[in-house]
């Protein structure tokens, strides 16, 4: 399947404080705000006359084709709110995807594995080094 067809976003309905609904919305082939809005109205059963905003986790409002195209990527988390300044009354879990470089997986921890060979189990040292290297490699990444 094409990546475009597999595109999706997670949308939390936070219009009501006690509501913690999260839905996975497929956006493959959706290239306009109006089509996306229709999907939201349908999936969350929102009356067409109800006022609400769709925002990113950074509270950027998705309200036209330009903001839809520039602000939304597959896998993003969005909020359905009454207004953009609305506080979140309940915690939200956001998915984080991490794909380490091939060398990080293969080469990290080799030294630690052999250096700790006298230990009962050297494998945890190698895993600890993998995690340490992964964090060190991504600490200066700019948020997108």
Describe the structure.
The chain is of the alpha+beta class and 144 residues long. The protein folds into two domains: 8-81, Phosphatidylinositol 3-kinase Catalytic Subunit, Chain A, domain 1 (Ubiquitin-like (UB roll), Roll); 102-138, no CATH class. 32% of the residues lie in helices and 14% in strands. It has helices at residues 33-43, 65-71, 102-107, 110-115, 123-138; strands spanning 8-13, 22-26, 53-56, 77-81. It has a four-stranded mixed beta sheet, covered by helices on one side. A hairpin with an 8-residue loop joins strand 1 (8-13) and strand 2 (22-26). The radius of gyration is 21 Å and the shape is elongated. The model has no long low-confidence stretch (mean pLDDT 83).
CATH homologous group name of the largest domain = Phosphatidylinositol 3-kinase Catalytic Subunit, Chain A, domain 1
Instruction: Note the beta-strand portion.
Output: 5-15%
Name the structural class. alpha+beta
CATH classification, class level of the largest domain: Alpha Beta
Number of domains in the coordinates? 2
Q: What is the H/E string?
A: EEHEHEHHH
How many helix segments?
5
**What is the CATH fold-level name of the largest domain?**
Ubiquitin-like (UB roll)
Main sheet summary: 4 strands, mixed
> How are the strands of the biggest sheet laid out side by side?
2-1-4-3
Distance between the termini: 26 Å
Short structural description:
This protein is an alpha+beta fold and 144 residues long. The protein has helices spanning 33-43, 65-71, 102-107, 110-115, 123-138, and strands spanning 8-13, 22-26, 53-56, 77-81.
């Amino acid at each position: 399947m094409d990546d475009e067809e597999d595109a999706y976003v997670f949308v939390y309905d936070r219009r009501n404080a006690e509501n913690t609904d999260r839905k996975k919305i497929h956006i493959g082939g959706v290239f306009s705000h109006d089509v996306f809005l229709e999907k939201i109205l349908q999936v969350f059963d929102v009356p067409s006359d109800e006022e609400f905003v769709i925002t990113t986790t950074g509270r950027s409002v998705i309200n036209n084709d330009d903001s839809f195209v520039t602000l939304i990527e597959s896998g993003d988390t969005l909020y359905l709110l009454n207004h953009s300044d609305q506080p979140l009354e309940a915690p939200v879990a956001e998915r984080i995807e991490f794909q380490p470089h091939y060398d990080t997986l293969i080469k990290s921890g080799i030294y630690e594995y052999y250096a700790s060979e006298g230990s009962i189990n050297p494998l945890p040292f190698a895993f600890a080094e993998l995690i340490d290297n992964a964090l060190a490699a991504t600490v200066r990444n700019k948020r997108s």
